[in-house]
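In this section we walk through a basic example: taking a raw amino acid sequence and producing a predicted 3D structure, encoded as discrete structure tokens. The instruction is simple. Fold the sequence below.
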Amino acid sequence: MPEQGAQAEPRCHVGVDLGGTNIQSGVIDAHGAIIGRDKRKTDADAGAEGVIERLLASITSACAQAGIDAGQLAVVGVGAPGPVDAGRGIVLEAVNLRWESVALAPILSERLGVPVGLSNDANAGLVAEHRLGAARGTNNVLGVWVGTGIGGALVLNGSLHTGAYHTAGEIGHVLTDPWAPPGSRSLENACSRTAIVDRVRRMIRANHTSSLLDISDGRLNKVKSRHLLEAYTSGDSLVVDVIDDVARRLGVTIGGFVTMLSLECVVLGGGLTEAMGELFVGPVRSAVLGSAFPEACRAVRVVESELGDDAGILGAALLAEDAQESGSLSSATGGA
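The resulting token sequence is shown next.
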């Protein structure tokens, strides 16, 4: 107990970026610094309960590194893939996790004994970039996160915009080729890292040559963004052709959103973007500027995430803190 009249020490927050591949947790102190971290594989094949157990273990590990107990936290924020109902704390549908209607925030709150706020992972990342990173000082921003899948988020007129059905910004699920076979129709199907690897694997099996066979020790099902970067920078013609084509497709689609919403900034993030940097961002930018209309829209800035992996962690914590301050966590988690 603090002495009478003494101010209680500010309590920490935790932000969690729950992705299709990795879970990343960070303990954030009163000054906004991350003082404890944990990163581990999501293991989506373990099912919802298995992933939740790994998520809880990640939070506990990050807290231990920060020297605190999870029960001492002020609030936990989780950014999850796919559309979510933040008010009820429910993941509506997470394709990468094969989840549907999972009440994640209430489950975590009961297990941890602290309030838990839920947000979409791309929304969390963009909020952090808008307040702290690459989109500071802008009011109309699209965030696009290219990794296992493709996530998207929108800030319009200075505020996060989620829409009537909690799906605003979900650019990855926009159909770019509606007459293609099922599983090949959306932007995510064509332009995610998963799609890139699948396309390269199919072309290798069709007798195209690629250094990825050697780089991945023949395990093409285990190719990561760093392997694609190595092949790209070595001049692997197959990988260069596929990634450059993906960048153009992604950029043209983004250009349509710039036209429709009159956006002033686009932030590109996610594992593939972070691995390749300007090698990927540059071609995307060129395609955006070549397709946005009218000429005035070509003033849009297309930039790489400044916060990298920390964007999802910081943004999830910021959104949970916002919800706690507004009182909207109580119905989902029983938190104060």
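Looking at the output, two observations stand out. Confidence is low (pLDDT under 50) at residues 1-8, 330-336. The longest helix spans residues 237-261. In the next section we compare this with other chains.
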